[in-house]
Amino acid sequence: MTHELKTGGEQGYLRIATEEAFATREIVDVYLRMIRDGTADKGMVSLWGFYGTSPSERAMQIMERLLDLGERRIADMDATGIDKAILALTSPGVQPLLDAEEAKTLAARANDTLAQACEKHPDRFIGMGAVAPQDPEWSAQEIRRGATELGFKGIQINSHTQGRYLDEEFYDPIFRALVDMDQPLYIHPATPPDSMIGPMLEAGLDGAVFGFGVETGMHLLRLITIGIFDKYPTLQIMVGHMGEALPYWLYRLDYMHQAGVRSQRYERMKPLKKTIAEYMQTNVLVTNSGMAWEPAIKFCQQVMGEDRVMYAMDYPYQYVPQEVHDMDGMDMSAETKKKFFQTNAEKWFKL
């Protein structure tokens, strides 16, 4: 028999969900416009061609929940015992937009909308800002505005921006602003760019089932191996879905990366101050969004440290009350469980 899910912490901890999505109607309409006019990439056609137009019950419920920043969302949180939700603009954000000015306008308006919702429900909602990496200097200004004016606790970038990755020097203003504001970057998945999506798309594996994790894990690895944490030692980067599989590859990643450095096989693969595993233990944070699986959570805590693994629901894409029961029932100490659900989020988001 499962226990009743309630907010308030009577189980010994609050439940803070750290990767929860929202959308604005105007941004969804832009996605649909891009699909119609042929400017969307294959991933957007696959993802938003479904969520934006499908009459299926799953797609319609997700769309309704994405667009709600009030009573319905809070009712869903109450029903599953979620005390607080850290909200960010749904993937792919404004990053696919070809017109950078339009992207910046939409991101700023989405940030204002989120800030208003957080102000209205300060005990339930916490915001992470959106940026338009198409313009890194503007994005840096928006990070500072989010931190100093809107009350945001970090920013979310949805992996690649039209096939470009954050390890390019072009995006350095974003990292400088994050370090200056002492805020984390959450790298959320997007569908793979056209250059890598083909075999996944034809097999139906381009989205959350597989493609998201492959592409986002690669993105984080690109940043680690280019030396982002040697350049910015205090920077913290978060990823979801149990680390996009990287914690389980750490032994092989370190072995092969060090072999590659010694062989001088790749021009960009230079020696680093730490191993990949050590960066994962000092500069990377993981949430279990979409991965309510005790063995994976415990393994990640073991290899990264209990202070670096946090709870997330992945609402509204994965809204399963039984998963909250399962997480409450994990076989771990009360102290570790409180870190997982509450105090790690409070620490790293500075709540």
Commentary on this structure:
The chain has helices at 25-37, 42-51, 57-67, 71-79, 100-120, 136-150, 172-181, 194-202, 211-226, 228-231, 241-244, 246-263, 276-282, 294-304, 321-328, 334-348, and strands at 16-22, 84-89, 125-127, 129-130, 155-157, 185-187, 237-239, 284-287, 309-310. By secondary structure, it is of the alpha/beta class. The chain has one domain (18-348): Metal-dependent hydrolases (TIM Barrel, Alpha-Beta Barrel). The chain has a 6-stranded parallel sheet. A 3-stranded parallel sheet has the order 1-2-3. The mean pLDDT is 98.
Let me know the largest β-sheet. 6 strands, parallel
Structural class: alpha/beta
User: Can you list the strand order of the major beta sheet?
Assistant: 4-5-6-7-8-9
End-to-end distance, in Å? 34 Å
Catalogue the unreliable spans.
none
- The average pLDDT value, as a whole number, equals 98
**How much helical structure, as a percent, in the residues?**
40-55%
Q: What is the number of independent domains?
A: 1
Q: Which descriptor suits the 3D outline?
A: globular
CATH H-level superfamily title = Metal-dependent hydrolases
CA radius of gyration:
19 Å
Total number of beta strands: 9
Number of contiguous helices: 16
CATH topology: TIM Barrel
Q: SSE order, as H and E?
A: EHHHHEHEEHEHEHHHEHHHEHEHH
